[in-house]
Known about the structure:
Organism: Fontibacter flavus
InterPro entries: Acyl_Trfase/lysoPLipase, NTE, PNPLA_dom
Helix content: 25-40%
Protein name: Patatin-like phospholipase family protein
Radius of gyration: 18 Å
Keywords: Hydrolase, Lipid degradation, Lipid metabolism
Largest sheet: 8 strands, mixed
Amino acid sequence: MNSDRKIGIALSGGGVRGISHLGVLKALNQHGIFPNRISGSSAGAIAGALYAGGHNPDEILDIIIKTNYFKFLRPAISWTGLLKMDTVEALFLKYLPENSFESLQIPLTIAATDIKRAKVVYFSEGEMIKPLMASSCIPGMFDPISIANQYYIDGGVLNNLPVEPLDGICDVIIGVNCNHLPVEHNIKNIKSLIERTVIMSMNYNVYSRKDKCDYFIEPQGLARYGVFDIKKAKDIFDFGYEAALSFIDNNQGIMDLAVRKQKKKKQ
């Protein structure tokens, strides 16, 4: 029966912009749409892990605002990065204390980039926090994360919308990208030029996977927020929430997923 269809959701990376994923999840949940599997890169992996660990979207937003994630980063004295992520491990352990994929309420796959072998690696079993740190390890800014004698950086470098772990397993895939670029008529300085170029590159590998998604949610203009603009967390959350509500209103077919799930519960 169609009521048994599995829903997968793939969440892109994008720094603080990834908070919009929480707003999207809240809107989907309010309409009775709950993912059976999650995959994510970078910020999408963090949002997905906390959600799969049993925290609801509003709780996760509160965690992010109260802890101020970025204060846990400290300078790195090395040639490989400017900041170390090791102190972030304690923060993740506070909210994901069992530190394993198997302990999650929803199956999760995390994408990271193996820097030496130049390939994407997907983590979905065993210890979870190291892969989570690796997936969000922005190259050049953070020291690479060592796992089993291999070094990993941000999953978004090679795959910023990891739909592959859901393909062939889930009947329906929802992709969510948090890096939509607004039209820019005036590049003001070298900083904005570099930021825009990086986001264009990230979006290229997102859009190359768009056709694998049955539904693709992309809140418009989110790239105007900086990667570390934590003061805008609530605005970014609300932006994702409103965009998802609008998407649902304009794509009524997605509501079939909620109806089928409700039917399944009644059986």
